[in-house]
Amino acid sequence: MATINTKKYNFLLKGSNSKALLLIHGITGTPSEMRYLGKALHKSGYTVFCNTLPRHCDTLSELKKVTWQEIVDACAQDFEFLTKEYSKVFIGGLSMGALMSIHLAHQFPEKVSGIVALAPTVFYDGWALPKTKVLMEFLWKIPAIRNAMDIRESWPHGLKDESLRDSVHRFYKDAKAGEFSKKVFLFGSPFFPMASLYQHHLFAKVVKREIAVVKNPILVIHAREDDMTSLKNARYVLNSIGSNDKTLVILEDSYHMITIDKEKDRVAQETVKFLDRL
Fold this sequence. Notes:
The protein is of the alpha/beta class. 40% of the residues lie in helices and 16% in strands. Strand 8, helix 10 and strand 9 form a beta-alpha-beta unit. The protein is globular and about 45 Å long.
């Protein structure tokens, strides 16, 4: 069987100043969802690094094997790689990547210069989620069931931008769980394994125990109409974190995937403004 080149969409953009930012994409996602933001930060002088998370951009069967500990280890290595060369290193992430940013700040409190939490996902409670979500949270505790169930990504796919949403939807609706498509590099997995949701759930519990002692400056950006995770997630992060330097930006014309949705320029502008003052 041919090896899938999961590194295809990684990027390291060397900047002109002494500051760097590690970007972390969401679980089941891809570095492509962080590239627009990365390019904007690079244009402002920052070095930006974004790697494919372990077992991502690969087959569905491989994605199901990922553990939150694997993701932590990989992101910690990426962060330490940047600290060897840059005097200030920030961490930013989308969804689960936002929680990973907080966790790494807890792990490296003196080395993380600031956190950018984009649509942080502590719990799934968005308006587009089915009412059967409660049943799912019971089923994922049973290993045989969580390892067998794959949830097809459904409308609106975290996107308010209709043109982009239509492109994603065409790929997702025809995707088959047993087949691999190279479009996964662009759009992420068309299926969300229950096993991955469970890993996210376990990791969120870890971050909830740690967040009160995290003192690093933080910017939280969240869409008011987030279809996956309500604004309560952002408020939870802001109310729980130990930092005195915390900022919330609420977007009015986006859904969950704020780094590529209709207000992606605002996300980039607010991020640059936050980093520039630290």
